[in-house]
Design goal:
Elements (H helix, E strand, L loop, with lengths): L13 H4 L4 H11 L5 E6 L17 H10 L4 E6 L15 E5 L5 H13 L3 E5 L1 H5 L1 H5 L4 E4 L6 H10 L5 E3 L15 H4 L11 E3 L2 E2 L10 H5 L4 E2 L2 H15 L5 E4 L8 H11 L5 E6 L7 H9 L2 E9 L3 H6 L10 H10 L3 E8 L6 H14 L3 E6 L7 H6 L25 H15 L2 H8 L6 H14 L8
Helix pairs in contact: 2-7, 12-14, 15-17
């Protein structure tokens, strides 16, 4: 693999023998550039039969954060293929081609990487899938970034400028979130198709989740680390977006793995948010939503929807996946607390566990209808690479076609029922929950907003479902 050489090579190890810091060496190298190297950052679309990366899509916060960092030293071209933007066949204008990937678009990312390698470019792969399977990803790129780029940026950028790349960049320790740059959304918004982005602005207050559910990739990437940004930085970023959009009631979407893990931090953040008039949603653990005061403060701070992983109505299933924060006897209380404060619920339910039976589907339907869950989301159990669950289930997994690792394809046969029975009931449940009459029962008296629209879109979508789609 050939890479372009800098005119002067500076060995980063010299920092250990002198008082020069690695950051100083990087800045010295950057000043020596006659022309700034050019990066192409790519968000590839996913190939799946389900409604993924279609219609309105969320702004790719992680890639925006990469662009913000890279743009300090290099020229950046930002392509989001989900918007309909074309990835060039000819990479000659660029020195570095960097691609983010998750499992369901890994093959697409690998194809781009292979093509860029053939053209002699430095190719970087990052994101969840290359992190989880970095040995696999290494054959499609020059270098793999394990986890977040911020924590290895000085080393990576120095090597880019020196023209000497390592096959893997993995941080020995994670960088404090307070040291990270505020994301520059202009990279994404510069696209002529940027109107296809959701109006909800992604924001990040914390990283990590020490809970350790065995089907989740987060503990593999971050370990037991849980980091958070200083509250004034989070609020400052919200005010920045208010000024940018010239309105107070902006819609924010937290991208945190578990924003409520440290209750004191979370509650203080909500108190500050209640003063500035924003609207927001987030994924959240159930571990202390049974406390009425939490739901009250969330509603007062502008929360209009929380996404909650109920996962299952079977206590043995919850135990088997280490979902200790979920207690079945709290489910109804959590829902009632949120509804009393005007907060809608996007509820996630998974099927295909070994403890599932046909009764599992009826129990889930009854729970959703009785508690009037506004936006139920159903998925099939998917053991993702790099998780303990993947290692446990690997001998039983039907295939390793990453394009189908979208949580909507049948991965293995559960012990409690055959695959045909699983898929038949999976389709039936979705169609029953999203029938017109069922929507009206669940949504009666709720505010007329995008959740209503989402329900009617799901009504049209689920009517076309067949078990064969999930094979």
């Amino acid at each position: 693999m050939q890479t372009e050489q800098a005119e002067t090579f500076i060995d980063p190890s010299a920092a250990f023998a002198t008082s020069i810091s690695p950051e100083d060496i990087l800045q010295q190298l950057a000043r020596q550039q006659k022309t700034r190297k050019k990066w192409l950052l790519i968000q590839p679309k996913s190939i799946t039969s389900m409604m993924v990366d279609s219609g309105t899509v969320s702004m790719p916060l992680n890639l925006i954060m990469v662009a913000t960092l890279v743009g300090q030293l290099f020229e950046v071209t930002f392509i989001d293929e989900r918007l309909g933007e074309q990835i060039p066949e000819d990479f000659s204008p660029y020195d570095v081609v960097a691609i983010t990937s998750r499992s369901l678009n890994a093959m697409k990312a690998y194809g781009i990487g292979d093509r860029a390698l053939r053209q002699g470019k430095t190719v970087i792969l990052g994101g969840v899938h290359p992190t989880m399977l970095h040995e696999e990803a290494a054959s499609h790129c020059t270098s793999v970034v394990y986890g977040e780029i911020e924590s290895i940026w000085t080393e990576l950028a120095t090597d880019i400028l020196n023209g000497r790349m390592k096959p893997l960049y993995r941080a020995k320790e994670l960088k404090p979130m307070g040291d990270m740059h505020r994301p520059d959304f202009s990279y994404a918004l510069a696209s002529k198709n940027s109107k296809k982005y959701s109006s909800r602005i992604p924001i990040l207050a914390t990283k990590g989740c020490p809970v350790g559910c065995n089907f989740c990739t987060t503990p593999t990437i971050y370990g037991k680390n849980y980091r958070y940004r200083e509250l004034d930085l989070v609020i400052e970023e919200m005010r920045y977006h208010q000024e940018r959009l010239q309105k107070e009631k902006i819609n924010l979407s937290f991208m945190d793995d578990n924003i409520s893990f440290r209750p004191k931090y979370f509650m203080t953040l909500l108190e500050e948010m209640s003063k500035i008039g924003v609207r927001w949603n987030a994924n959240i653990s159930m571990n202390f939503l049974d406390k009425p005061e939490v739901a009250e403060l969330a509603g007062r701070s502008g929360c209009d929807l929380l996404s909650i992983g109920f996962e299952s109505l079977n206590p043995e299933t919850l135990k088997s996946v280490h979902k200790g924060s979920n207690r079945l006897d709290n489910y109804a209380k959590v829902v009632d607390n949120l509804h009393r404060n005007g907060i809608a619920i996007q509820g996630y339910f998974m099927f295909g566990f070994d403890n599932d039976t046909e009764e599992s589907f009826q129990l889930t339907y009854d729970f959703i209808m009785k508690n009037r869950i506004e936006f139920p989301v159903f998925s099939l159990v998917t053991p993702f690479p790099g998780t303990p669950y993947f290692d446990e289930m690997k001998p039983r997994i039907r295939h390793f076609d990453w394009d189908k690792y979208d949580t909507y394809h049948y991965m293995f046969e559960p012990q409690g029922m055959g695959g045909e029975t699983l898929l038949k009931n999976f389709v039936k449940l979705q169609q029953e929950v999203y029938k017109g009459k069922a929507i009206m029962r669940r949504m009666q008296g709720k505010p007329l907003n995008w959740v209503w629209l989402a329900n009617f879109m799901m009504n049209r979508f689920t009517r076309k479902l067949t078990p064969e789609i999930y094979l």
